[in-house]
């Protein structure tokens, strides 16, 4: 039998090997999970944007077609309508012309009077003579009332539910119609297209996006499996190289953790570069201009007598240069948070509130709790969120009062910015690819340090809340 100490040594080595394998695999699995989650989120977001773009293009095309069809229909009866005739023969001839205008199996024209009575329907003649004013579609909307109202207001588009004539199904389909009013004959003329083919095309796009996301997730799983297998195999071959393997995994983990910071760091470096260029280049030039103007005033003083002395003009130029220098200092403070590094977060936020006050917009700042013990990355993120939010308020909100509060306790740091401005539609701005850059930037700032951003807005004001956990 083996000695007891030999058995203990073997058991210890086995436990150590399992720990090394666990410590090597766990960070990799977590990193791959984070990558998979990020890829899925971004792919889903892109799919939603693609869906919205395609739907918008489809609708624009259909809207153009509908307007063209109605214009052709008006032209086809223009010789009767423009003649001023209102006799039964002219009315009957016009209805016959419109009833014969068809495009495709479900492309037809319809006529109502302003009271909702059906005057002509190319696909459902049994409706002619019936008053459908109180008819409601499957969604409960008064379809005929909406069409007549839209026509009276100058014409336009309306969406409603209507049974598709060529379909064997008894259920209604989504339909988009374009209507105009013919006032002399008390008519509402319109035509429409069914949107089931648009829905089918969008469903196909969504299915393809989902399939792509599934394939991507599958590849990530395969890569994860192969990576784990390779690590286990390598560690099992030579347990003595565990330190080197741990070091490599540490570097990989550090790189993965740094992905979220790259965007923020690049932005900070760009801000610093621009600030240095302004501070070291433009500002000294303006100082030289100021000195030259002052020298010119001294030389011209008392030597030239005119109705408008040149020194007055030079003095005004000097004042403008001073204003430019003050504005340049403000821009530099916005780009490089010098106050944050030199004075701390509370004083920097207080100065930011003072510098951002414009006209009738009053900005008040308050701080509660121990703030300055926060890491510099947390301070920078909170400062940038406040800076972006205040810029948006001053430019867009038309607010009279703004309250900025920074609160910190043992669990979290909370930055609250409230204004009484006109507010905005948060969902629409965040979903518009051409807008919402400021909101997304604030979200990235908070998320880069493990926090989150919450925005609530209505016609009575907007609240921006940034929360960073400290535990």
From TrEMBL:
Domain Histidine kinase stretches: 277-471
PROSITE patterns: HIS_KIN
Source species, domain of life: Bacteria
InterPro entries: HATPase_C_sf, HATPase_dom, His_kinase_dom, sCache_2, Sensor_HK_TwoCompSys, Sig_transdc_His_kin_sub3_dim/P
Compartments, record wording: Cell membrane
Keywords, alphabetical: Cell membrane, Kinase, Membrane, Transferase, Transmembrane, Transmembrane helix, Two-component regulatory system
Gene3D superfamilies documented for this protein: 1.20.5.1930, Histidine kinase-like ATPase, C-terminal domain (3.30.565.10), PAS domain (3.30.450.20)
Membrane topology: Multi-pass membrane protein
GO MF annotations, alphabetized: phosphorelay sensor kinase activity; protein dimerization activity
Single GO cellular component term: plasma membrane
Name the record gives this protein: Two-component system, NarL family, sensor kinase
